[in-house]
């Protein structure tokens, strides 16, 4: 049976369905498998000729235990990817000798979040139906998680969805994808503050155990382990297609996407290195390169989904790098919460360095990377992909095998930056047609926990919670 433990060690082991419906562990930690399931090299080789959905089934069935049957899992995976605009779901596209983009933006909201959330939404609804309950889902978003969560959960009967985005700090397309949702169960909050402020409020809501119990609170952003499990799949498909251990370069904000690579490695996948690519908000680059994890003020950049100073999923990497030392994690996270700074012990830093490298890239280099690729082969990329492309240029000379850049969003979601870099307006794909005609529904709230809590309680009551 697959069981899950908290990084902070004070929550009893849980089932996959428990983890799916709970999100954050009650002790404030993040869930991880009690033991990582293994996938052998021969099976990975076989993935090269299998459809993406079949690989997803092979990977995810190792995590779900008896929470879902193979038939239930297969049905939800099949439905999740039926609407993607590329049959490969996450196609590899060559941009140079041994150099690739892994395109993760072919889902309904044109961002990598769809790959996990389209599955998570269906499993979530299935688990909720089995238990006969209701749920209040709260998501803090720096841009893409919100619309992907709405696409996955909008219209579900027993779910009230609250999405907090930092007011004025997401792209226009990102905002409209959230605020023009017609679903009555979707509530958008534009928070006056940063993504880190929104994320801190969400964590505080979970820490209020009475509120969490009263509203049946859960989360679907990358603190939910089901997201990590589903995102690990494309590391397997890409590696299988390449037939060699790649270096993956990952645009990084909240550390969930790159930690999914670590999850794949811990399951036995041969990856040479995971490269963390950050923008000017370079907390993760400094943590990995200098050993100091210190949060400052988030700076607005051309890659807003990465304008983050507190990377929630880094706790998972620290847990593994410390040999699953729950006492140290509890103390370290307490220190960081209090002082906004944590010095990493040398042993932990060395363990992280064996797996990760990190580079930071400012807006000028982001624009230059967009322009350079466009000039080479006429391909447009979004600014988050461009941050990773700039970092990839640093590692290509030393990488032994192929280098794969995770391309995390469609360029049309960030038309202003693309136009600035190339003079070209990216064409709006079918998913975005009609977006500008939609009616926006959004509530602007101050950066205040009590305000947000009261807003959620009031709207949840209207849903019968």
Could you explain how this protein is built, in words?
It is a single chain. This protein has 465 residues and is α/β, with parallel strands linked by helices. The protein has a domain at 92-111 and 225-422: Rossmann fold, CATH 3.40.50.1100. 46% of the residues lie in helices and 15% in strands. It is built from 19 helices and 15 strands. The chain has helices spanning 16-22, 41-47, 52-64, 70-82, 113-131, 144-153, 172-179, 195-207, 209-215, 225-242, 256-266, 283-290, 314-321, 326-339, 346-353, 363-377, 383-395, 415-422, 449-462, and strands spanning 4-6, 31-33, 92-96, 99-103, 135-140, 159-166, 186-191, 217-218, 247-251, 273-278, 292-294, 341-343, 356-360, 403-407, 443-445. The strands form four sheets. Strands 3-4-14-9-10-13 form a six-stranded mixed beta sheet, sandwiched between helices. It has a five-stranded parallel beta sheet with strand order 8-5-6-7-15, sandwiched between helices. Helix 3 (52-64) packs across helix 4. The longest helix has 19 residues, at 113-131. The protein is globular. 55% of the residues are buried.
Let me know the number of strands: 15
CATH architecture of the domain at 92-111 and 225-422: 3-Layer(aba) Sandwich
Principal-axes shape call: globular
The low-confidence parts are none
Please name the CATH topology of the domain at 92-111 and 225-422. Rossmann fold
**Alpha-beta classification:** alpha/beta
CATH class designation of the domain at 92-111 and 225-422: Alpha Beta
Please state roughly what percent of the residues sit in beta strands, choosing from under 5%, 5-15%, 15-25%, 25-35%, 35-45% or over 45%: 5-15%
**Radius of gyration computed on alpha carbons:** 20 Å
Mean pLDDT: 95
């Amino acid at each position: 049976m697959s069981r899950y433990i908290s990084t902070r060690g004070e929550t009893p082991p849980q089932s996959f369905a428990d983890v799916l419906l709970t999100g954050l562990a009650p002790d404030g930690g993040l869930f991880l498998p009690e033991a990582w399931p293994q996938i052998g090299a021969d099976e990975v080789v076989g993935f090269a000729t299998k459809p993406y959905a079949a690989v997803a089934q092979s990977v995810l069935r190792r995590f779900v235990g008896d929470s879902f049957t193979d038939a239930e899992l297969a049905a939800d995976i099949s439905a999740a990817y039926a609407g993607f605009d590329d049959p490969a779901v996450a196609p590899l596209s060559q941009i140079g000798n041994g150099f690739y983009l892994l395109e993760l933006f072919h889902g309904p909201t044109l961002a990598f979040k769809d790959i996990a959330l389209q599955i998570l939404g269906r499993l979530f609804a299935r688990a909720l139906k089995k238990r006969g309950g209701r749920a209040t889902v709260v998501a803090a978003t720096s841009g893409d998680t919100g619309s992907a969560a709405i696409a996955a959960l909008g219209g579900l009967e027993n779910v009230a969805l609250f999405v907090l985005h930092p007011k004025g700090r997401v792209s226009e397309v990102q905002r409209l994808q959230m605020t023009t949702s017609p679903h009555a169960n979707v509530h958008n909050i534009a928070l006056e503050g940063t993504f880190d402020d929104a994320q801190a409020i969400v964590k505080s809501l979970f820490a209020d155990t009475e509120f969490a119990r009263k509203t049946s609170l859960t989360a679907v952003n990358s603190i939910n382990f089901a997201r990590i499990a589903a995102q690990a799949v494309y590391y397997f498909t890409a590696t299988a297609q390449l037939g060699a251990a790649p270096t993956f370069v990952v645009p990084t904000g909240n550390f969930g996407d790159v930690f999914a690579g670590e999850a794949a490695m811990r399951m036995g996948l041969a990856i040479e290195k995971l490269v963390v690519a950050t923008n000017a908000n370079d907390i993760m680059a400094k943590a990995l390169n200098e050993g100091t994890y210190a949060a400052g003020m988030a700076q607005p950049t051309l890659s807003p989904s990465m304008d983050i100073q507190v990377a929630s999923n880094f706790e998972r990497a620290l847990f593994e790098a410390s040999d699953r030392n729950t006492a140290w994690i509890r103390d370290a996270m307490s220190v960081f919460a209090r002082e906004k700074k944590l010095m990493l012990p040398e042993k932990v830093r060395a363990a992280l360095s064996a797996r990760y490298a990190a580079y930071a890239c400012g807006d000028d280099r982001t624009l230059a990377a967009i322009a350079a690729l466009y000039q080479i082969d006429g391909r447009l990329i979004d600014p988050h992909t461009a941050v990773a492309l700039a970092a990839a240029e640093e590692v290509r000379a030393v990488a032994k095998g192929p280098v794969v850049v995770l391309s995390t969003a469609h360029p049309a979601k960030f038309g202003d930056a693309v136009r600035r870099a190339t003079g070209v307006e990216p064409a709006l794909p079918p998913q975005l047609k009609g977006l500008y005609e939609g009616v926006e529904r959004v509530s602007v709230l101050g950066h205040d926990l009590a305000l947000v809590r009261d807003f959620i309680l009031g709207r949840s009551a209207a849903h019968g919670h």
